[in-house]
Amino acid sequence: MESGKEFTHFNESGRARMVDVSEKEVNYRTAAAGARVLVNRETFNLVREGQMAKGDVFGVAQVAGIMAAKKTPELIPMCHPIRITGADISFELDEENAAINIVATVRCKGETGVEMEALTAVSTAALTIYDMCKAVQKDIEITDIRLLSKTGGKSGDFIRKT
Question: Hey, which bits of 11-140 come out as E strands?
Fold first, then answer.
């Protein structure tokens, strides 16, 4: 294993387990995750102008992403229920590439990080954009789902370089 690190979600028998975080220190933690939704020019213009038949694409995707962050432990089997103290979704229109860039930021005070909550939030926001636009375009692509940064915890801070 790289850097002497081991997988922590397996017991001595090699079976899945939820890691015990009861001895970990409570501290302030943040995570930001990103995703990109690639659409064609027609779809991009409809979204930008707020003309999509299903309604406010960004408003619905923002609420969906925040709801998903709160539901992460119900979706990802080994995630701990976390008392999230804040969640936000932001969107940036990339005119040149007819793309929508999404960033989900999640915060908490807890024993474990919120990376999975941020990744679930950004993924769900991207899927919601797909759902809101699929009547106009079937070949929408969701790409570049990734952790952008995290703070707090024993492993320290992380900031993606590119």
Answer: 27-38, 84-94, 99-110
Give the type of residue at 37: V
From the centroid of its chain, how far is CA 110? 18
Distance from C-alpha of 74 to C-alpha of 103, rounded to nearest angstrom? 22
- Quick check: is 131 catalytic? yes
Both tokens of 133, joined, read 């636009």
State the Cα–Cα distance between residues 127 and 61, nearest whole angstrom.
8
Q: Where are the domains of the chain?
A: 25-153
Confidence (pTM): 0.90
- CA–CA separation, 64 vs 122, rounded Å? 9
Annotated catalytic residue within 56, 94, 131, 144? 131
Q: What counts of helices (H) and strands (E) characterise the chain?
A: 3, 5
> What is the topology classification, in CATH, of domain 25-153?
Alpha-Beta Plaits (3.30.70)
pLDDT per position as a tens digit, 59-98: 999 999 999 999 999 999 999 999 999 999 999 999 999 9
Q: How far apart are CA 71 and CA 94, in angstroms?
A: 29
